[in-house]
């Protein structure tokens, strides 16, 4: 199963339009959104093209193909604009080989792991810093942020295809980080 990951949109219309364009070209079955969808939050500057209502409208066109979790900047009011659920603090996707534990990263994350089995993948956002690596028996995957990148990285998103997890630059699809996930 091919999946695309986006995190920390923070209401940026240009970022979500780029994500949706790439999703349409990707052949991915689902777009996994790892929280912080509409609001920028009090600690972040306004992202380019801040337009939360328009972001909701664009995402709603693909509601049946979106899997999402709640971020620390998401609220019940945001859910009123979106036609797909965003209020779950975590979700799980099961593949034939492993479990993907999807979370934003503020409740569960690298420093507060949920119960995972060897070979499982912790998929999170929140830090805005891309990660694709194995730590012990668990894989860690963070697609970075599509709107407010940090740590000197460019805006980025993630792809899972076959046994590869990749973080790609939003503008030129250059590989920022990559890990092979083997059961």
Automatic annotation (TrEMBL):
Residues 1-161 form the Calcineurin-like phosphoesterase domain. It comes from Scandinavium lactucae. This is Phosphoesterase. The keyword Metal-binding applies. It comes from the Bacteria. The keyword Hydrolase applies. The gene is yfcE. Belongs to the metallophosphoesterase superfamily. YfcE family. Its cofactor is a divalent metal cation.
């Amino acid at each position: 199963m091919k999946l695309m990951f986006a995190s920390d949109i923070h209401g940026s219309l240009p970022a979500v339009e780029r994500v949706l364009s790439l999703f349409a070209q990707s052949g991915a079955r689902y777009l996994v959104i790892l929280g912080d969808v509409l609001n920028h939050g009090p600690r972040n500057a306004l992202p380019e093209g801040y337009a939360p209502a328009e972001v909701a409208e664009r995402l709603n066109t693909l509601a049946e193909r979106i899997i999402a979790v709640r971020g620390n900047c998401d609220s019940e009011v945001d859910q009123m604009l979106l036609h797909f659920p965003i209020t779950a603090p975590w979700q799980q996707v099961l593949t034939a080989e492993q479990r993907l534990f999807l979370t934003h990263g503020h409740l569960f994350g690298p420093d507060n792991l949920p119960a995972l089995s060897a070979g499982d993948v912790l998929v999170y956002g929140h830090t805005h810093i891309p990660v694709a690596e194995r730590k012990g028996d668990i894989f860690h995957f963070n697609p970075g942020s599509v709107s407010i990148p940090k740590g000197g990285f460019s805006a980025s998103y993630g792809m899972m295809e076959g046994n590869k997890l990749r973080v790609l630059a939003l503008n030129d699809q250059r590989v920022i980080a990559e890990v092979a996930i083997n059961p």
